[in-house]
C-alpha cells in the first residue's frame, strides 16, 4: 500500500511530498531557494531550507540520494568552488548523493541565483 503526504502545500505545489511504502518513505523535495545578495549567501540559505524540509520529515542530508541544482548564468571557474564549499559544509566529505548541476538563464524570479531540489529515502 502506498500513502502520500503533502508537506507545506502552497498554491500549485507542495514543498515536500512523502511517499510511504512499507517501512520506507521517499521524500520528494521541491526546488528550494534562499535570500541573499550573492550566490554564496543564497546557496547557504538554500541548503538551510533543504535541511528544514528534511527535518520536517525526520530526515537528514545523509538520507538524500539525489540532488538537482540550477545556477543562473553558471560560470564553472567562479561558481563551482562556491557551490562545492557550501555543499561540503552541509553534506560533509563523503557519500554524496547522485547529483546534477545545470546552468540556466533564469529561475522563477529574477533575484534567485540558485535552486536545489532533492530526493531522500528514509527507513
UniProtKB/TrEMBL annotation:
Pfam families with a match to the protein in the record: Ribonuc_L-PSP
Superkingdom to which the source organism belongs: Bacteria
Transmembrane segments: none
InterPro entries: RutC-like_sf, YjgF/YER057c/UK114
Family recorded in the similarity comment: Belongs to the RutC family.
Protein name: RidA family protein
Amino acid at each position: 500500500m502506498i500513502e502520500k503526504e503533502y508537506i507545506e502545500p502552497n498554491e500549485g505545489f507542495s514543498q515536500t511530498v512523502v511517499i510511504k511504502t512499507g517501512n520506507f518513505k521517499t521524500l520528494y523535495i521541491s526546488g528550494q531557494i534562499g535570500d541573499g545578495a550573492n550566490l554564496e549567501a543564497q546557496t547557504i540559505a538554500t541548503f538551510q531550507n533543504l535541511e528544514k524540509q528534511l527535518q520536517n520529515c525526520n530526515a537528514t542530508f545523509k538520507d538524500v540520494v539525489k540532488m538537482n541544482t540550477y545556477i543562473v548564468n553558471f560560470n564553472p571557474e567562479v561558481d563551482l568552488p562556491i557551490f562545492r564549499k557550501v555543499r561540503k559544509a552541509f553534506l560533509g566529505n563523503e557519500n554524496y548523493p547522485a547529483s546534477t548541476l545545470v546552468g540556466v538563464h533564469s529561475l522563477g524570479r529574477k533575484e534567485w541565483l540558485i535552486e536545489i531540489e532533492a530526493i531522500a529515502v528514509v527507513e
